[in-house]
């Protein structure tokens, strides 16, 4: 009897904890700025989006994906939270965007939209640079789970196959967008593979 009660309490506790984590995830999504885009086409988990000009801060580091992106994230976090420079903090946005850069990886933070009109604070080190990305169109596939190399490759293959159904080839390399903190449970995480395209019709 006690074991049954303990099991029920554990299940209820787990359910409450799961609901709390889901609630935090929902709150985070509503509070965190994400880049605006126009939806060109939607097909299940795949979207074609038209983005305008985006202000970004980026860092490039050599090495394997996890190690290089970890270094990039820390450098960019020090920049936006004014730990490596003077002045005001910059609000964190989502997603963090990553792509290959030679033998290493580039990590990008999209800066808040206010920096379309205002110059962002100057980085204090050469490890970080700020720039604007030109308007572009991308195909994106959204998925949950821990975005390891295997899952990213599998989702990228699905997206490329979908594009080939329209007779399209990507106009550039894949990018990977991560919307959540590492502590977020896999089923609640949002990640995307992005492929730049020139048109969809």
Automatic annotation (TrEMBL):
Entries under Pfam families matching the protein: SOUL
User: Sorted alphabetically, which keywords does the UniProt record give?
Assistant: Membrane, Transmembrane, Transmembrane helix
Under the heading InterPro entries, the entry gives: Reg_factor_effector_dom_sf, SOUL_heme-bd
Q: What is this protein called?
A: Heme-binding protein
Q: Which residues cross the membrane?
A: 9-29
């Amino acid at each position: 009897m006690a074991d049954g009660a303990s099991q029920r309490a554990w299940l209820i506790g787990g359910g409450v904890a799961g609901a709390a984590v889901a609630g935090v995830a929902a709150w985070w999504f509503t509070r965190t700025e994400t880049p605006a885009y126009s939806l060109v086409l939607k097909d299940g988990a795949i979207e074609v989006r038209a983005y305008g000009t985006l202000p970004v801060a980026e860092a490039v580091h050599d090495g394997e994906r996890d190690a290089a992106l970890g270094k990039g994230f820390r450098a960019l976090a020090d920049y936006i939270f004014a730990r490596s420079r003077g002045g005001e903090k910059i609000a964190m946005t989502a997603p963090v965007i990553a792509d290959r850069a030679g033998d290493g990886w580039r990590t990008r933070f999209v800066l808040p939209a206010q920096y379309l009109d205002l110059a962002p604070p100057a980085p204090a080190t050469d490890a970080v640079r700020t720039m604007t990305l030109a308007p572009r169109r991308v195909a994106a596939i959204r998925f949950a789970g821990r975005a390891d190399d295997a899952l990213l490759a599998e989702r990228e293959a699905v997206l490329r196959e979908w594009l080939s159904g329209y007779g399209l080839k990507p106009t550039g390399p894949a990018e990977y967008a991560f919307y959540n903190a590492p502590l977020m449970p896999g089923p609640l995480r949002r990640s995307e593979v992005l492929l730049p395209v020139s048109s969809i019709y």
